[in-house]
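Private note to self, pasted from the team thread so I don't lose it. Backbone tokens:
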């Protein structure tokens, strides 16, 4: 399968609601080691030690939980404009977001697809680390001395769930040009999960199928760590704070990466730490890998080593 041209460059950020911004900042910054780029009113913008963009995680204090939007950066402003026109031609209700309406970001578009709130943008600020916090290496942002023993390096991928996954997967592949790297097929012959990328990563977004007509949900956002040992250090840190991981440390069969899951006690947002990175895919003619129950177990219990997180999901915000 030849890799398609895509207007999408990468996963940009996740914006989530929290009923207690102070507690969420404590969890993400003090416990997990994220860097606070900027706080404007009731919104905190965070990023990892090696994230270039202004933020890869936004926390909005709104009195509720739920994911506000999943943001992808396009490859150019022209591609963003073309994507907006394409969505409108297809009858989608496209919302225009003005420059700086979202701190650190230029104009964007938002659209709900298959129950998921997507945002697309191109222009974004890439601020240096504050004085005294820069890395001595010019190809990094923050100095390693700032990180605690977890300290996520960069955003990696998002994982969502819905009951219309075949149509959602077709849209990601055919309309947005995502490459399907891996998939999971159930014993009844139906596909259950899809792992898509536009970068050399094993996946930039994954989708798994819900039964019946259950509402679309957000499963987790993943941030990259350097090594398997970092996951054990993360587990140690969480234990010191009395916080129980949702799953792991363990190893995925699909994507071949090491993992640990933990949720913010305030917002319920699930974070996966993803170490490895499993593999990098530079093949121009990649053939999708298909897994089944006889290969790695049931669709919701398919780890190579250890137990993954639950599949409850987090609702999207109604605001």
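Design output:
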């Amino acid at each position: 399968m030849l890799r398609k041209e895509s207007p999408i460059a990468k996963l940009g950020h996740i914006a989530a609601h929290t009923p207690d911004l102070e507690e969420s900042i404590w969890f993400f910054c003090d416990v997990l080691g994220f860097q606070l780029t900027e706080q404007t009113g009731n919104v905190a913008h965070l990023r990892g030690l090696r994230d270039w963009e202004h933020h890869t995680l936004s926390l909005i204090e709104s009195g509720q939980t739920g994911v506000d939007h999943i943001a992808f950066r396009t490859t150019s402003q022209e591609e963003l404009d073309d994507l907006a026109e394409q969505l409108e031609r297809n009858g989608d209700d496209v919302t225009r977001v003005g420059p700086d309406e979202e701190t650190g970001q230029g104009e964007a578009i938002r659209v709900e697809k298959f129950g998921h709130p997507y945002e697309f943008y191109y222009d974004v600020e890439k601020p240096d680390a504050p004085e005294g916090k820069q890395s001595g290496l010019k190809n990094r942002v923050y100095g390693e001395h700032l990180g605690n023993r977890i300290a996520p390096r960069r955003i990696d991928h998002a994982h969502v769930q819905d009951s219309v996954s075949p149509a959602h997967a077709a849209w990601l592949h055919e309309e947005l040009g995502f490459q399907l790297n891996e998939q999971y097929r159930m014993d009844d012959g139906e596909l259950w999960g899809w792992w898509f990328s536009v970068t050399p990563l094993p996946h930039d977004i994954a989708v798994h199928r819900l039964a019946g007509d259950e509402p679309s949900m957000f499963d987790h956002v993943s941030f990259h760590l350097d090594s398997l040992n970092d996951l054990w250090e993360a587990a140690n840190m969480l234990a010191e704070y009395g916080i129980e991981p949702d799953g792991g440390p363990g190893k995925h069969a699909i994507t071949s990466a090491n993992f640990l899951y933990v949720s913010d006690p305030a917002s319920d947002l699930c974070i996966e730490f993803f170490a490895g990175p499993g593999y990098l895919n530079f093949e121009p003619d990649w053939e999708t890998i298909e897994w089944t129950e006889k290969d790695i177990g049931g669709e919701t219990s398919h780890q190579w080593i250890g137990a993954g997180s639950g599949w409850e999901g987090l609702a999207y915000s109604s605001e």
